[in-house]
Inverse folding.
């Protein structure tokens, strides 16, 4: 039976399938893959391959590669056995442009068994067959929030097809957002006495129209080429206002607190805008070469980001007493060329040699202006940062026996980092060792050790000004270097009968040259390196199916994570956690596809707890409380369309921001003030998701 005939029969049987309560389970192939045929997902009425991946039980998506260059590993998604070239979230976008009707099946594979360096753990392989002609999908996602204008401009249109030996996919979209928060702020003296109350209100608007084209050329079975083009606009506007009310402070012993603050009456207004464009082009071509295959890869990204921040301070009579501006224009880019040569001398033995060259740059200029007192304005600051880098790897993947597989990679990188006209040169070893034990198709364990080099954020080199207070000001530090770490991970995956699954993952890192805030000069601060430290965590992910207990169509997913870290504070020399690291996270989601109907409903709740952020002059803590919640109801056939209505922020959700400000460096000065803020969201709010295929 041909694949096309199978698809036709499945399409004809779909109405019958939706009316049955017989659960469709995953199958196991002869080579140990866990296989989910397209019929498994029909009850969810998916529109794209990405919709199907999100419904896989026990599978956790890992994002695209944000490491230095293209590196090794990347997103744990393959399309017809091919890794997707690109960085960031692009692999998710590419599979989201594959119509669900083109998907034959999804395969869960252990990454260590593949001849793809750096890819370990569970990997999903999307097996698809592009249909002749043009097909696609569209979605419109209007949103209504309290205190905001309706967001009616969010949506996308995707098309795909095949002509000759070229397949294509394209998307036009706008990721528009309209949201805000509001709530009280308080300022207290070191003894806890209240001296000023504030009321905050903020609005944040984003319009991000863009387009993407993906082309695949396959002239023969052993030759394949890909070309991906992307262009986006990003327009962001933040507007916030604060009203201030002074509080009279009465003390028993005022001499004990000579530095007490005095509250102010008046208002503040802050505006920030960014008008960015960014573009990407990448491609690859793989073909037979000697006794193996050669793959040539190219990638280029460019971005232009002008921003303008304005601050206004008004006195008790709302007369303007301060007006400042901070303008910044940044041009950045990344160019990468890479080649991979792979060969297999015998079955179960794979080798690869890869060479990569990369060039990153950032040209940034900024200027601070005091509009009312021009003499306090600063001059134009200009800074150029670039990095030239080359790296090479040799990787061997070996299947030891029916239960064990091994992957070893050894390499090094050489880089030249130039900041402000000063060039520094580095040579660093890199590599990894991964092993997988597969007891049977329901249980495997993966262990990995890797030497990693971090990617610097070039903006950290540059100076910056915080208009609302001086605590966020930052000096230029040209001596910043990337962090390095030893990374270790063990992951256990267990698939139970009836579709239940469990994943346990534990990891740890030993860092050197950690990047954080440091004291700089006599009384300044900058981003710099603070020495060594360690971090670790454990994750539990579960999927439970309700069918064995008579709850047909019910699926419950949970995710729980704990993290810990330790580093020596560069100010106090005491041990503390990494700045802003997430200490814990847990979330739970339930979906019920009601048997013998086109209806489904579900809910989500999640929360997290963060460590504090440390700068030389302040300690800041930010959390979301009690957590994020949403409920939804869905109908899979409203005039042929899929319609979902979601109510977000069902339980009152707010951001809690607390900050301790010191009169000088934390080790040399006392507390100046304590700030507490509680910002509520514009909720509850309503989101519709209307989608269809064509």
């Amino acid at each position: 039976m041909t694949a096309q005939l199978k698809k036709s029969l499945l399409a004809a049987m779909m109405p019958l399938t939706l009316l049955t309560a017989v659960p469709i389970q995953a199958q196991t192939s002869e080579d140990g893959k866990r296989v989910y045929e397209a019929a498994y997902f029909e009850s969810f009425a998916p529109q794209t391959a990405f919709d199907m991946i999100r419904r896989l039980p026990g599978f956790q998506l890992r994002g695209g590669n944000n490491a230095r260059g293209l590196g090794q590993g990347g997103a744990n998604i393959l399309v017809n056995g091919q890794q997707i070239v690109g960085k960031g979230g692009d692999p998710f976008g590419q599979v989201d442009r594959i119509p669900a009707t083109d998907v034959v099946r999804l395969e869960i594979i252990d990454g260590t068994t593949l001849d793809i360096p750096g890819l370990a753990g569970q990997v999903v392989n999307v097996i698809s067959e592009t249909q002749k002609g043009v097909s696609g999908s569209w979605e419109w996602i209007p949103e209504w929030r309290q205190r905001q204008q309706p967001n009616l401009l969010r949506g996308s249109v995707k098309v795909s097809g095949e002509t000759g030996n070229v397949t294509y996919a394209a998307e036009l979209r706008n990721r528009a957002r309209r949201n805000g928060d509001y709530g009280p702020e308080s300022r207290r003296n070191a003894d806890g006495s209240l001296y000023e109350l504030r009321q905050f209100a903020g609005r944040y608007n984003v319009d991000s129209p863009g387009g993407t084209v993906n082309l695949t050329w396959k002239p023969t079975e052993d030759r394949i080429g890909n070309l991906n083009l992307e262009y986006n606009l990003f327009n962001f506007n933040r507007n916030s206002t604060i009203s201030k009310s002074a509080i009279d402070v009465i003390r028993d012993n005022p001499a004990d607190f000579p530095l007490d603050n005095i509250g102010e009456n008046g208002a503040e207004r802050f505006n920030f805008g960014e008008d960015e464009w960014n573009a990407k082009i990448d491609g690859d071509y793989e073909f037979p070469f000697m006794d193996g295959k050669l793959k040539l890869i190219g990638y280029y990204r460019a971005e232009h980001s002008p921003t303008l921040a304005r601050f206004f301070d008004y006195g008790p009579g709302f007369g303007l007493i301060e007006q400042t501006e901070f303008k910044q224009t940044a041009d950045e880019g990344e160019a990468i060329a890479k080649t991979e040569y792979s060969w297999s001398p015998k079955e179960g033995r794979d080798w690869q040699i890869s060479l990569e060259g990369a060039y990153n740059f950032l040209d940034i200029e900024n200027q601070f202006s005091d509009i009312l007192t021009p003499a306090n304005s600063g001059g134009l600051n200009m800074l150029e940062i670039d990095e030239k880098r080359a790296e090479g790897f040799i990787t061997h993947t070996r299947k030891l026996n029916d239960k064990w597989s091994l992957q070893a990679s050894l390499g090094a990188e050489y880089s030249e980092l130039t900041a402000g006209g000063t060039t520094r040169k580095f040579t660093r070893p890199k590599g990894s060792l991964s092993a997988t034990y597969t007891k049977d198709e329901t249980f495997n364990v993966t262990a990995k050790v890797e030497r990693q080099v971090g990617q610097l954020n070039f903006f950290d080199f540059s100076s910056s000004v915080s208009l609302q207070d001086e605590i966020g000001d930052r000096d230029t530090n040209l001596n910043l270097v990337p962090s390095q770490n030893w990374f270790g991970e063990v992951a256990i995956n267990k698939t139970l009968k009836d579709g239940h699954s469990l994943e346990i993952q534990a990891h740890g890192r030993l860092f050197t040259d950690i990047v954080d805030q440091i004291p700089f000069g006599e009384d300044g601060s900058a981003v710099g390196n603070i020495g060594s430290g360690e971090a670790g965590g454990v994750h539990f992910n579960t999927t439970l199916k309700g069918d064995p207990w008579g709850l047909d169509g019910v699926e419950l997913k949970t995710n729980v994570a704990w993290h810990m870290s330790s580093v020596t504070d560069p100010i106090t020399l005491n041990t503390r956690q990494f700045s802003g690291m997430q200490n814990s996270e847990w979330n739970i989601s339930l979906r019920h596809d009601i048997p013998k109907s086109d209806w489904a409903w579900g809910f989500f709740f999640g929360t997290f707890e963060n460590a504090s952020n440390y700068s030389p002059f302040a300690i800041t803590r930010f959390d979301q409380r009690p957590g994020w919640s949403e409920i939804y109801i869905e109908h899979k056939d409203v005039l042929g369309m899929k319609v979902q209505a979601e109510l977000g922020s069902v339980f009152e959700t707010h951001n809690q921001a607390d900050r301790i400000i010191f009169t000088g460096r934390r080790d040399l000065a006392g507390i100046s003030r304590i700030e507490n803020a509680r910002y509520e969201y514009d909720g509850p709010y309503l989101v519709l998701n209307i989608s269809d295929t064509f």
